[in-house]
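Model it.
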Amino acid sequence: MRNKGDGRVWRLLLAITLCLTCLGCGRKTLPIPPQDAVPLPITDLRYQQDENNVVLIWSYPEQTTAGSDLPGLHSFLVLRAVVPNEEYCSGCPITFSSAVEVESGNAITDVKKREARYTETILRPGHRYFYKVQTKAGWRLVSEDSNTVSFAWAAPVAAPGELIATAGDGKIELRWQPVSTLVDGQPFSSRVNYQVYRSLTSDNFRTVGDQVAEISYTDSGLRNGQTYYYQVRAERELNGTRLVGLASQTAVQTPADFTAPVPPRGLTGVVIDQGIKLLWERNSEHDLAGYRIYRRMPDEKKLTLIGEVGREAMTYVDHLTEASGGCYWAVTSFDTATPANESVFSKELYHESF
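Modeled.
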């Protein structure tokens, strides 16, 4: 017969064995992430700047360091360093002391272009800022650093004043007043250039052409009848950074065709049973719409419109059957603009009594 004490001892030994087994199977080091899950580093980090903030822009990776497709993105780590201008030296090591983690869904702005953005609004004048970005695909699945971008920050230039837009044929001419102070009213002596911005609405302005040193700009190649909105900003360079100033007030203008066709040439006339048949040479303008025919009697000072024909016509019959003192005719050409541009009168044709 077995002793009850032996059973209790046996169960105790079994429990100790199970505990030791469980403790022995635990991992004693952190798992090493597989290389085929680590994102490639970002290589095109860049920035856009206005008078209030700086926007970091980059293309996020689609592949891992092993060349396989990246299964997903978790977030981006934006690393920042700030150095006072008086302490900055080119070539000195930079310590990135702060990092912001941005969820991928909040940073990605364009899936087709694989573009992500981060806006920095806390900026202090008199300092230089450095940024780089890492891609995070999961726990410990973090890419190498991106390229580094840096810029200086200072009080922006004041807005150009009195922006005036003048419409032309397929173009708009802009003029504005020069800028000589910062937004805080302090004068500055560095050279400024001006950048023109254009939009088809009252917002979402984009740059047009290159910067100019002059206080005027002609925007050509525009579509007549389309309304365009313009702003101008002054820009200056400080410690290798292009600083963008405040935007001017918005100027609105619509280009239009103000160029009239040339007057018809070779106007002649012959008497026919129905009256006088007028003939002229056809114009060659691509936007020609037609011709207008005018007449006056010898005792009249002004020509009177008597008819209109299309662009293909080169004749017109005036059903005037009698003119004892003779009669004068002239023809003009007009285009497709709204309102139409009309040429000056052709050389007058006179026909004696009939």
